[in-house]
Amino acid sequence: MARQYVPAEIEVKWQKKWQENQAHKTVEATDKPKFYCLEQFPYPSGRLHMGHMRVYSIGDIIARFKRMSGYQVLHPMGWDAFGLPAENAAVKFGAQPAKWTYENIDFMKEQQNRLGVSIDWYREVATCSPDYYKWTQWLFLKFYEHGLAYRKRAFVNWCPECSTVLANEQVINGLCWRCDSEVTKKDLEQWFLKITDYAERLLNDLDKLPHWPEKVRTMQRNWIGKSEGAHVTFTVPELQDEAITVFTTRPDTLYGVSYMVLAPEHPLVAKLIEGKPQEAQVRAFVDEIKKESEIARTATDAEKVGHFTGAYAKHPLTGEQVPIWVANYVLLDYGTGAVMGVPAHDERDFEFAKKYDLPIKVVINPLDPEMLAEEVGVEEAFTEDGTLINSGDFDGMPNRDAIKAISKFLEEQGKGGGTVSYRLRDWLISRQRYWGAPIPMIYCDSCGVVPVPYEQLPVLLPEDVVIDGKRNPLTSSESYVNTACPTCGGHARRETDTMDTFIDSSWYYLRYTDPNNTELPFSKENADKWMQVDEYIGGIEHAILHLLYSRFFTKVLYDIGMVKYDEPFRSLLTQGMVLKEGAKMSKSKGNVVSPDEIIEKYGADTGRLFILFAAPPERDLDWTDTGVEGSYRFLHRVWRLVDGHAGLFEGNAAAPDTADEAAKDLYRMTHYAIKKVSEDIGERYAFNTAISTIMELVNKLYTYPETADRGTLVYALRTLIVLLAPIVPHIAEELWQLIGNKDSVHEQTWPAYDPQALVLDEVEIAIQINGKVRDKLVVPNGLSKEELEAHVVNHEKTAGLIEGKTIRKVIAVPGKLVNIVVG
Ligand code: ANZ
Ligand code: ZN
């Protein structure tokens, strides 16, 4: 009697069995190599979306494949559970942030289990749990101890909508990363982590990450923004030679300086204007500019505005008087917050000098003799290379050499020297919000800033708070705010800010290695055993934020001896988006397909198969109903095939005997499939082509003659089920039982292919382009002229070789070569 494929029945059944058997609990077998497979942990927003389903399908195929391939695999999951939405829910519906979060976690965990993903839930972490944030606080104190956490007053990014400050990385094109509101500036005393101390290593070590997408590494490089140049010190005679140091990438243009500009917030401005006729005007101007966002100020088309301060500096080499201005286009927190104006050779300075009628002094002569020096600086700034003129002893020197020579000279004179500047700023981590890890610091009138002693951790979030979305709720809890100073015992106040949630996610991958440790965030032994994460899977939106912060954390932990590796993620896979009809799924477009819907209608296996088949993991995936239907039909087809031959497996099934042609062909195809699927999953993450190979095998099995060898058939069917196991775990498990096995398909050893089976039937041929051998290709043996021609013309290698040219003619010589004539 034929049995029906009913996913709803078998999926729930196996999920329960796996749970009972603790099938996904990490097995620590020291004789096996380790593999740490990690998907970025989700924010418990309430429901899984297709993006989640895609990430987990990708992670799970890798984890299952590696387990079957003889690795001890760590494949944990947890919750990035602090953050604003819980607090917004509290404001809106009066929900307790903790209750809201844990309910979401329960719900989403159920959903994840329905996907059949092989997660070790025994290692689950939730960053909002005191067992976890105790260690987040502990790590903060370690950073503090090592001089890497500090408090300073600064103009910080402020999101009025979220009513909290933001790190630079969280301001995307001038807007809040979370709510897209325009970010303004606020002068506040805040906590920072000193990520800038690690700028150089964060930059250089990107070269240690060949398994990261180049795009992500480039984004990080640009974010760190290393720029080599010089410091030049100008003195202000009227202020007892007080120094103003500028950062410039072009010390070779030093003789072309005709004015200086300070950022409006520069601390010297007040002193410079004091008692001057300009004082009131400049002050008003400065107040005006301070309110503007950085983006508005530095946009290339933004108008440059400034004011003369009335003060002059002395040029370090010529001694000339240089007027000092303030202007919107100079930022306080880049370089030194002061620049030397060289209008002849810098576009921004040129525009500014034209507008305010400042002198333009040409000091670089173009190499092109057609272009006279006098003409330079009339129409536009000359920013290219050339030879120095009007530059004292440096006249005649090529400007590249002058960059070094002038830096060196300045250094000898004690007036500056070569230096490096980074765009990267220290990480502002204070948040004026409730649902985060409290910063474990205490302020005492007598003792100053006092860290909470380690043994008093965790500093628990108070529950007697008012969450109204208007002020920091922690300030409303008297019992929280008032405390005793750990040093003198006197009355003191607690820090009421919480930490940026990106701190929580900067070390969670380490906690998974040792989730129940009550003495430390993790033991070195466990971390060293499992780290690095061998494959990290997540969205490109974290290319800078989370990935940069995690790298920083790992480096600090490495430096203080807590871990053996100084990079957390060996390989990174950034998965593409899930689209529908070419557009991102969104409620407003009404094109959302939910994982639950798919599971209910087709089962999780169909969903997983479709997701892995429809596109390579890094590409965007277009969700189509016909595609899902196709995947569903394919699973039915597999089911009928195995079910129809179940009888063959009774008793002692025969071994393959490849005496007849059909058996030989099936045997070859089976081993070809093993090879291709192993390489596609294990080396290339080309899950889509792995699946198409399995489909070919199924086609071959359907045409296998009744009269051909049964042993070979049994062998091929068994192999088919094993190859399907990491992709569609439930149906594979069910079919495995159906053919009479008592153990789990997921505990089978991944098959190795028999090179002998392939060699016989493959042959290497040459690909020629216009008669020249350009590449070699292994093709099935015995192809006809036409088949060989089609095979080679359609092969991906060929596309690369003909570089978009048109194919004029193809000459195929079976077993030898294919010559493609292009023109
Ligand atoms: C004089 C000069 C002459 C400059 C010239 C450029 C060309 P990057 O490459 O991005 O590091 N600068 C320095 N600090 C600044 C600040 N806080 N706000 C705005 N501009 C600032 O750019 C470095 C250059 O940007 C510096 O070199 C300085 O202008 C300007 F022909 O100094 B330059
Ligand atoms: Zn916001």
- The percent of residues in helical segments reads 25-40%
The biggest sheet amounts to:
4 strands, parallel
How many strands in all?
34
Bound molecules: ligand ANZ, zinc ion
- What Rg, in angstroms, do the CA atoms define? 33 Å
Structural class: alpha+beta
Low-pLDDT residue spans: none
Report the CATH topology name of the largest domain.
Isoleucyl-tRNA Synthetase, domain 2
Structure description:
The chain is of the alpha+beta class. The protein folds into four domains: 7-125 and 507-580, HUPs (Rossmann fold, 3-Layer(aba) Sandwich), CATH 3.40.50.620; 134-194 and 426-501, no CATH class; 226-422, Alpha-Beta Complex (Isoleucyl-tRNA Synthetase, domain 2); 760-822, Ubiquitin-like (UB roll). The chain is built from 27 helices and 34 strands. The protein has a four-stranded parallel β-sheet with strand order 2-1-26-27, covered by helices on one side. Strands 6-5-9-19 form a four-stranded antiparallel β-sheet. Strands 13-14-12-15 form a four-stranded mixed β-sheet. Helix 1 crosses helix 24 and helix 3 (84-93) packs across helix 4. The longest helix has 24 residues, at 661-684. The mean pLDDT is 93.
